[in-house]
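Backbone-to-sequence.
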């Protein structure tokens, strides 16, 4: 397995994916909470444009209306992003603090023409806005700002058919679903994963991934498994659903990340039992980590290490990267984190995953990556006037992967307060870039003035594009190309004393012809000294 860390600069390209919307019929329903003698479903349900299907029942001299399910035609909740159906799960308190009314709720989409969707293909429910919970007392003081997002789960179904709404005169009694309409939801597949995701625009999605072929997919809003004391008189969880779709894979030259998780944590003191946990105080603006600008996601461990030992987010790409592809990431470090020493940067971990496996195919941390290559992180981290450090880097897992987890392990630091400790500015793919390992990095040189100095790099071609080189030197804060210096070796003749301390590096371009990539070597220092025995004459000496 080959791993490398290099300074990197290249184009951040987006290749659009094709969305195929599930435009078949939709159904939904509420699932009663508690026993059947409670006070009903309360405010739980689905808003328009979904419709309620109910049946009038003749029971003696009384005519009653019995709710069956929600339904919607092919014309609603398709590709538009203006109208949505609000899915509400609710609970209320009855007498003496007992559970009153309440229910969980689901909505289910069918694929157009009941076509089969291949196992492992995600269906994305577009939520757009972050789910909202109201009336839930989460002991905010104890959680120190961590708030419940919502318990959202998905399920796949096979052999689903169109719903049936009973028409004609009302029956004498409500006897059975078959006579009074049927959702025809199909057969539940054995296993389904659900992921909450955010795109670069900050819009939310729920990805539902069945492990069998399916033709219908359900999204359920289920109330968190809290004790009753965390509820107010009326509590709701609301999720907006605009549409559902599958998405094609992106081009192998695509570099931009497609989605990020909202945030993940371990070591949280209160086990909420919620699938998605919104970590506002632990990762601020997680979607900024996948934007191509100067915005950033800000990582913190909260106020106390008892809150979160690790804080992480998973970055999802639009295709499976090859073993020759790399990952670019731009990191910012607080002064407090840098002051702990470079060894503490082993608290910043990276993990690669592929397909639907939850087991990493590769793991590494920032400190070990630099140690492996013999790179001095102090030379790579640029310290700004505010004392914060910046690092623009590439690492290569050496395995195929479709997502990368960035994990900040505050538990290794031995500190209590780490607000805005780590910033993640930009994460993207580097398709098939040249490789430059420790043995190929240019070495610093010490020469006498007017002598010759040479620097060299040894890079490996991994794609079908021949390697090209461009040597540069640092002038102020700008790297400047050296005219004609386009070979693996740079020769500087008649070096002046004024070049003492100048830094040099090589820009190496390679990869595939369809998407060339440029990497940069570590910079080497040129030290220039006086020739032995030569007097050092200054301007002051000449004047005097």
């Amino acid at each position: 397995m080959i791993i490398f860390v290099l300074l990197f600069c290249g184009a951040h390209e987006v290749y659009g994916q094709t969305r195929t919307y599930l435009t078949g019929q939709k159904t939904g329903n509420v699932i009663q909470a508690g026993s059947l003698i409670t006070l009903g479903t309360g405010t739980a349900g689905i808003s328009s444009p979904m419709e309620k299907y109910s049946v009038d029942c003749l029971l003696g001299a009384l005519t009653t209306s019995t709710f069956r399910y929600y339904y919607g035609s092919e014309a609603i909740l398709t590709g538009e992003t203006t109208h949505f159906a609000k899915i509400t799960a609710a609970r209320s308190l009855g007498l003496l603090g007992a559970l009153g009314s309440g229910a969980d709720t689901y909505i289910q989409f069918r694929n157009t023409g009941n076509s089969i969707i291949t196992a492992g293909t995600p269906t994305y429910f577009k939520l757009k806005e972050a789910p909202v919970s109201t009336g839930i007392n989460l002991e905010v003081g104890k959680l120190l700002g961590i708030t419940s997002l919502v318990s959202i789960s998905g399920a796949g179904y096979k052999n689903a058919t169109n719903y049936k709404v009973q028409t004609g005169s009302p029956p004498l009694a409500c006897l059975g679903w078959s006579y009074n309409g049927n959702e025809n939801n199909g057969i539940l597949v054995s296993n389904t994963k659900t992921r909450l995701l955010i795109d670069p625009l900050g819009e939310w999605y729920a990805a539902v991934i069945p492990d069998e072929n399916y033709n219908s997919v359900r999204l359920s809003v289920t109330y968190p498994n809290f004790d009753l004391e965390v509820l107010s008189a009326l509590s709701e969880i609301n999720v907006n659903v605009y549409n559902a779709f599958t998405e094609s894979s992106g081009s192998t030259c695509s570099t931009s990340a497609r989605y990020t998780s909202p945030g993940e944590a371990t070591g949280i003191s209160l086990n909420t039992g919620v699938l998605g946990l919104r970590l506002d105080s632990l990762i601020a603006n997680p979607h900024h980590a996948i934007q191509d600008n100067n915005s950033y996601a800000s990582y913190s461990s909260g106020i106390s290490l008892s809150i979160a030992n690790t804080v992480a987010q998973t970055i999802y790409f639009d295709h499976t990267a090859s073993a020759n592809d790399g990952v670019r990431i731009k990191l910012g470090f607080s002064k407090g984190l840098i002051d702990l020493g470079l060894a503490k940067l082993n608290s910043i971990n990276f993990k690669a995953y592929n397909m639907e496996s939850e087991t990493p195919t590769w793991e590494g941390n920032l400190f070990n990556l630099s140690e492996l290559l013999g790179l001095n992180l102090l030379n790579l981290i640029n310290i700004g006037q505010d004392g914060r450090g910046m690092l623009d880097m590439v690492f290569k897992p050496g395995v195929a992967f479709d997502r990368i987890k960035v994990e900040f392990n505050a538990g290794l630091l031995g500190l209590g307060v780490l607000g805005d400790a780590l910033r993640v500015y930009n994460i993207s793919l580097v398709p098939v870039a040249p490789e430059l390992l420790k043995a190929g990095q240019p070495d610093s040189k010490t020469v006498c003035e007017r002598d010759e100095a040479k620097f060299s790099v040894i890079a490996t071609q991994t794609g079908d594009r021949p390697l090209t080189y461009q040597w540069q030197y640092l002038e102020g804060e700008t790297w400047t190309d050296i005219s004609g210096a386009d070979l693996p070796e740079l020769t500087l003749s008649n070096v002046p004393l004024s070049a003492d301390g100048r830094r040099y590096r090589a820009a190496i371009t390679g990869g595939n012809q369809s998407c060339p990539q440029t990497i940069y070597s570590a910079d080497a220092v040129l030290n220039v000294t006086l020739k032995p025995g030569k007097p050092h004459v200054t301007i002051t000496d000449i004047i005097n």
